[in-house]
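Hi support team,

I'm opening this ticket because the web form for multi-chain structure prediction keeps timing out on my end. I have pasted the exact lines I submitted so you can reproduce it. The total is 655 residues across two entries, so I didn't expect it to be a heavy job. Is there a limit I'm missing, or should I split the entries? Thanks in advance, R.K.
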Amino acid sequence: MPEGARDGVEAGRETDGNGGDVNDREEGSGLTRRALIAGAAAAAGGAITASATRGLVQEAQDPTKVPGARPVTVGSRSPHETPEKLLSGSMGGSSRTPLQDLHGIMTPADLHFERHHHGIPYIDPATYRLLIHGMVDRPTLFTLEDLKRFPQVSKLLFIECSGNGGGAYAPSPSPQHTPQSVDGLLSTSEWTGVALSTLFEEVGAHADATWFLAEGSDAAVMGRSIPMEKAWDDAMIAYAQNGEAIRPEQGYPARVFLPGWEGNASVKWVRRIELSDRPGMYRDETSKYTDPLPDGTARQFSFVMDAKSIITYPTYPRRLPGPGFIEISGYAWTGRGLIERVEVSTDGGDSWHDAVLQEPVLPKCTTRFRHGWEWDGGPAHLLSRATDETGYTQPIRQQVLDARGPGTRYHSNAIRGWRVASDGSIEFAPV
Amino acid sequence: MSRANGVSRLLTLATLVPALAACGAGDSEGGPEAGSAAPGATAVATSDPGDGMTRRAGAAEPVYGFGTPATAAQIAAWDIDIGPDGAGLPPGQGTVAEGLEVWERHRCILCHGPTGREGPNDLLTGRIPGDEFPFANDRSLRSTVGNYWPYATTLFDYTRRAMPFDLPGTMTDEEVYAVVGAMLYFNDLLPADAVVDSATVVDTRMPARDRFVPDNRTGGPTIR
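Hello R.K., no limit was hit. The queue was backed up. Here is the completed structure from your submission:
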């Protein structure tokens, strides 16, 4: 099997949990397709000169000599900007955020990654209900309008699939990985909704309830068990994302959101929450989303996403134009709170430099880091490593191998890197 | 599915979430019965989600009064989960022999192969010699029902809610019992002539039953 194909299988294995059916794509194919679409749009646009035509590339003309387009009811990107998610999986499957195309920390909602096990359900908001029952005094059904009447919470937060980055953990990762193909199951939004603690107080949650079981109304009726501690801490039922209603693929009209925890547990399209005194032992907390360990056990309910970072510029398939100033930039994040420090190396880890952390630096949110670098035109190896507020520093692959063995499938957070050749070409090269 | 009171706790709070025990959420055996307000509840689980107001467990009255009481029928319609203790398992039974028919009739065979080993979709069948659990050390190993799943109740639960993949939730409870029996039979966990009912599903001891441990990652300098 060619190297790239093997790595594609590996990358699928982590998102799928068991591997067989997802990620049959070839690395880099997303870029090719994008280029084709842009080309087609340009060809079509050449014939169209009406200034009000949006979404198509127009004939070049002096924009100061013709009136511009009229206001529109819904805006759209410049036809010159065509970022796309990268698709994988035939059933269920996933799509990955084009991290290398984004600036700052926010993910446009239409570029937010997807991972679902049984497709995106259609749900009518008028008939939507959230049921909360079990160890409560007052089993209650909430309409969407009911949920929106409660006091709101709103936070900038990342969410990441716990299978993200599996392609970097593979024994010989493809050098043709992009930030998107390796870590694109990560996105950041402003999430708005009602604190789960508000709802649990409303229904009279029993003090001896220790877990809540959340289920979605997708075809998998996706279920996960969450310790009540998370509800009393910062869990929410979110109904809005980046100021608008949550997109269907993100859980419309309402989802569980567990800041800093593996994405699968933030059950989308949530319809039922049952308070209990034990977990449900759902498939996706036993067969999947558990982490085998070298001592013959498997870690279960490993919710928190540990500190991680990835350089998103400059990366494969870019080529550096020539020696001179390069601003290395990327994301760092941790499910344990704040990113305290990001270090960047340009010599494969022999020396490290503190990167600038761009404001805002928020807990359980991505942090943008930057590091100015003068490229001398020689070979270089760019690495980043994040340290969070607990003092945890992103490990190298060997440390994860020692702790978890080669067979582990989730929570891959070892240091990612990019090797720069003298001709300016760049390859994915984690350490 | 709520389980009956008095069934012994499978996983105590203290094992799974030490911090919870530390913050004092009730975990005592023989504590207040499910369905009654917990005495002293207001003192234990509280939170401030960021609006300056404290939330608490055991509130005797709703604070806002939004939402509608859920009836028993409404709850029953959605309360489909099967607990590891068997709570929620429906009446009925099936046999392994019927399960092998269901395997063809409901087309499991198309996506998982004649014995759950052949694919093309998820591998379901296979044991590891000595029922060892070397998944961390051998990247080529694939997990199956027989070598990785800790509870047969999960197999009933997942199959009933999510399979067959393209027509989920279309089997009768009897068919689910039967096909669960077939999958346990494929994995040498039931004989070919077995009858499968709720007791079978609860009592079938899965080889990986004791393999699962709580998360011991805590942040700080140690890589785990």
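A quick check on our side: Residues 308-428 of chain A form a domain with the Immunoglobulin-like fold (CATH 2.60.40.650). Let us know if the file doesn't open in your viewer.
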